[in-house]
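Entry type: protein chain
Record version: 2
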Amino acid sequence: MAIVNVSDAKFQETIQEGIVLVDFWAPWCGPCKMIAPILEELDQKLQGAVTIAKVNVDDNPETAGQFGIMSIPTLKVFKDGVDMGNYVGVRPLAELEAIVQKHLQ
């Protein structure tokens, strides 16, 4: 599955089924640019087992505010719509893969 950009309007719909890793980011954020290729590699490794959704906090302040996003990048994991936790800052591929695999079992 490709990485999807999600708006405030589509957020709840997006997180309702399966495992969804949400990246809260902004185009001006240096660390956000650093994690983008890591997320692309994770998407390729997991071959559709997980949805990776990107929420631009500048364009979608409602969703960012709802979850109290204060620092970016912040990654949140949802399983069938349930918030399973968040991770702030750039993380290596192996760590992100371990986080997601924990929720796939």
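Comment: The chain has a mean pLDDT of 94.
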